[in-house]
Amino acid sequence: MKSIIISIGDELLIGQVVNTNASWMANQLNAIGITVHRIITISDHGAEIIKTLKLAEEEADIILITGGLGPTKDDITKHTLTQYFNTHLVFNEDVYKQIEILFGQRGFAVTDINRRQAEVPANCKVIQNPCGTAPCMWFEKDNTLFFSLPGVPFEMEAIMEKEILPLLSQRVSGDFILQKTILTQGVGESFLSEIIADWEDKLPKSMGLAYLPQPGMVRLRLTAKGSDEALLKSTLDAELLKLQHLIPQYIWGYDHDTLESLIGKLLIQLHATVATAESCTGGYISHLITSVAGSSAYFKGGVISYDNQVKEEQLKVSKETLIKFGAVSRETVEEMAKGVQQLLHTDYSIAVSGIAGPDGGTVDKPVGTIWVAIATPTNIYSECFLHGEHRGRNIRKAALSALNMLRKSLIQG
Questions:
Q1: Into how many domains does the chain fold?
Q2: In the beta sheet, which residues pair with residue 223?
Q3: How many CB atoms lie within 10 A of CB 18?
Q4: Which of 62, 163, 182, 275 has the least C-beta neighbours within 10 A?
Q5: H or E segment to which residue 238 belongs
């Protein structure tokens, strides 16, 4: 079955809001064997919505629409659908009761403008919204299914997971689609493609590989498609095992893993703690670590030693080291790592110092030069990275390089 996702909203077209709905929906549809044929983003204009619906109806079995169902005048999707399906609005008591419940829980009275959200096209089936006031509207026309959902992500996701995905799963016939995302770090896309070229060329015809690079890592998405789900799974697992043997030094996780969550699990298993000493990353590593729920069990704190005086006074980096080798050096980050480890009494520590840019580079130390040190209970490891000229990407890459170094140290024990 083929589907088309239509995202409605001027805010999407001007870049004010990132269209996360479409990517989430596409991922969920692929997981149940529904191919996403097209993703279309359009403005809040009736003529544009109708034109897009006509195009989608000719190409897809399932059409998923998000956005434009709010209570304000610029939310015109419901009225446009009423026109498209040649019907009129009727008041739905069940939807209104849900609105009353939600407003009551929040301590508000239902206003006239919100009451109108209980008006729905007469020929649609209503799917209740458990998290908001705008219901999902389900239409069927010439064997094509139309679902109009609210644009608020958590509302849309709740309706999809509870109602629409189970319904579509029952109707899907044909091929299964299985995917596995392999997360790599420490190697660029072009170099990685050369290393795994022979393996990629020998993949079964039922499989495809996509390279998804982002600052600091490359994701490899392996997709298998066919009618025999068990055979697909075993074939996918076999190819994944080959890849694991081919590039074990670069693979650090799969699918929705994050480096910060993996090191958290490892630290908990070891009953160990960690601290950070950050210069060029300005606290970004600490932010990533503490973005994981429960990180207080293993993260004690950090020092943002942006100025050399802080490196000397708080982290006990010697003035001689800074004068002789500079702030961006192996010697300095190793002393930073030892200093914060002793200051906060932790088992492990991360230290980073570098030239994020766009200024400050020299011939010997160009912009993007980053030194990272990891202090363990018994040793200290350091490594230099040359990431590039973009400040934001350098900070992100430096943080991921540091976290991956810590991950490796934790695995080695």
A1: 3
A2: 179, 208
A3: 10
A4: 163
A5: helix 229-246
Place of tokens 């990180």: 295
Helix 46-59 to helix 77-84 angle, to the nearest 10 degrees?
A: 60
Domain boundary among 211, 231, 254: 254
The greatest distance separating any two alpha carbons of the chain, rounded to the nearest whole angstrom, comes to 81
Q: Which residue has the higher pLDDT, 102 or 25?
A: 25
Q: Give the pLDDT mean for 292-313.
A: 98
How far is it, in rounded angstroms, from Cα 75 to Cα 45? Answer: 9
Give the pLDDT confidence score for residue 174 in this predicted structure: 65
DSSP secondary structure string for all residues of 61-125: SEEEEES--SSSTT--HHHHHHHHTT--EEE-HHHHHHHHHHHHHTT-PPPHHHHGGGEEETTSE
Instruction: Supply the CATH number for residue 46's domain.
Output: 3.40.980.10
Which residue type, as a one-letter code, is found at position 340?
A: V
Give the residue numbers spanning the domain of 121: 2-171
This prediction has a pTM of 0.73
* Three-state secondary structure call for residue 198: helix
Instruction: Retrieve residue 322's tokens.
Output: 């800074």
Give the chain's mean pLDDT. 94
State the pLDDT confidence band at 303, using cuts at 50, 70 and 90.
Answer: very high
* Residue 324 parent element (H or E): helix 319-325
Considering the domain architecture, whether residues 285 and 247 belong to the same structural domain is answered as no
Q: Looking at the structure, tell me whether residues 218 and 244 fall in a common domain.
A: yes
Domain finish residue from 130, 156, 171? 171
